[in-house]
Design goal:
Elements: E1 20-31, E2 34-45, E3 49-53, H1 60-67, E4 75-80, E5 83-84, H2 89-94, E6 96-99, H3 111-121, H4 126-139, H5 155-167, E7 173-177, H6 185-202, E8 205-210, H7 213-216, E9 221-226, E10 229-234, H8 236-243, E11 246-252, H9 255-264, E12 268-271, E13 276-280, H10 283-294, E14 298-304, H11 308-316, H12 331-340
Length: 341
């Protein structure tokens, strides 16, 4: 039998983006009569931001707890960084960082003292502690507050310090369970800037749970979880493409003529008061051809893709409870999302 520090199973060629850092196969958890997680399977590759998107009670936290060895599965199997979560929990714990919904910092200690305490718990080599603390505090832009008591921090600063702490021992995977719950939109933006910086600079693998659609948009891939089951997995764009067509709105000087020309070319098209609306898959790729067919009269073009709300509705038959509808998302955050796709 493999020793506790011997990876039992690795998949994908090491050192490539295809390397699986987290694997779950038929994972399940029952609490008495309640099935919190039912036969969930997924793979997370190195460097990915992977989001579990689902409403309260869907089974997100339970899945994270199993992967972090804080709860035992009642069915299936999972590995983190190549180690079996049930048989090699100590090896798994050494390789993960965790940020839970509840704050777990000692607010009577300074930021730096909290980090030093964590460094001892996680056996960060003494010679590296100061360097690592400097680095993670810079990553979350709290280096100037390092000597302040955590009790003087805002909720957002404390959450960011928790992320820094989760990173301190250079984990293979950082788990963020509803990381922005209770934070105001501006603070959520700043926290997301931290997370994206982490990914960019450290190629960190991040497992995120959320019930916010706008937050899930940041993920490379999303698994939609409902009543304990994963009902769909894919990139945000893939999921949107699966549920329906894009619409391309063309505002032109001659909507009637353009509608006729596009229909003759085989497009499904509808003339509205202000624009000609074309229904098509992968709308962006059709724009050059649509403009060419329309002639010189095009004034503006807008491509609309189904939203993650549409995706969630499609797969679950209902809407996720939204505390932060995407129209309240700060402009800076929306711009960032747009740039990534
Ligand atoms: N220790 C427990 N004992 C009994 N039932 C539990 C326990 N933990 C979770 N559950 C139940 O399992 C289901 C999934 O809960 P879980 O906390 O994983 O959901 P979630 O998607 O993370 O939602 P939330 O964000 O509200 O925590 C819920 O029905 C919950 O009541």
């Amino acid at each position: 039998m493999a020793g506790p520090e011997t990876a039992q199973r690795a998949s994908g060629p090491p050192g490539t983006s295809a390397e699986a850092v987290v694997e779950a196969v038929g994972l399940g958890k029952r609490y008495g009569d309640v099935t919190a997680v039912r036969e969930v399977s997924f793979t997370i590759r190195r460097g990915e931001i992977f989001a579990f998107l689902g409403p309260n009670g869907a089974g997100k936290t339970t899945t994270v707890k199993i992967l972090c060895t804080l709860a035992r599965p009642t069915a299936g199997w999972a590995s983190v960084a190549g180690f079996d979560v049930e048989r090699q929990p100590t090896a798994v714990r050494r390789r993960i960082g965790l940020v839970f919904q509840e704050q777990t910092l000692d607010d009577q200690l300074t930021a730096e003292q909290n980090l030093r305490f964590h460094a001892v718990l996680y056996h960060v080599p003494h010679s590296q502690v100061a360097k690592r603390i400097d680095e993670v505090l810079r990553l979350v832009e709290l280096d100037e507050r390092r000597h302040d008591l955590v009790s003087t921090f805002s909720g957002g600063m404390a959450r960011r310090l928790e992320i820094a702490r989760g990173m301190l021992h250079t984990p293979a995977v950082l788990f963020l369970d509803e990381p922005t719950i209770g934070l105001d939109p501006q603070t959520r933006t700043v926290m997301w800037e931290d997370v994206l910086r982490l990914r960019r600079q450290k190629q960190m693998t991040i497992f995120l749970t959320t019930h916010y659609m706008d937050e899930a948009e940041y993920a490379d891939r999303i698994a939609i979880i409902d009543h304990g089951a994963v009902v769909a997995t894919g990139t945000p764009d893939e999921l949107k493409r699966r549920v329906g067509e894009d619409t391309v709105d063309l505002a032109t000087a001659d909507n009637t003529g353009v509608t006729a020309r596009l229909a003759a070319a085989g497009y499904q098209v509808s003339e509205r008061e202000e624009a000609v609306v074309v229904f098509t898959r992968d709308g962006e790729s059709h724009v050059p051809q649509l403009i060419e067919l329309a002639g010189s009269a095009v004034r503006s073009v807008h491509v609309h893709r189904p939203s993650l709300d549409d995706v969630f509705l499609h797969y679950t038959g209902r809407q996720i409870r939204e505390e932060h509808p995407s129209h309240t998302l700060p402009a800076r955050m929306r711009a960032h999302t747009a740039r990534r796709r």
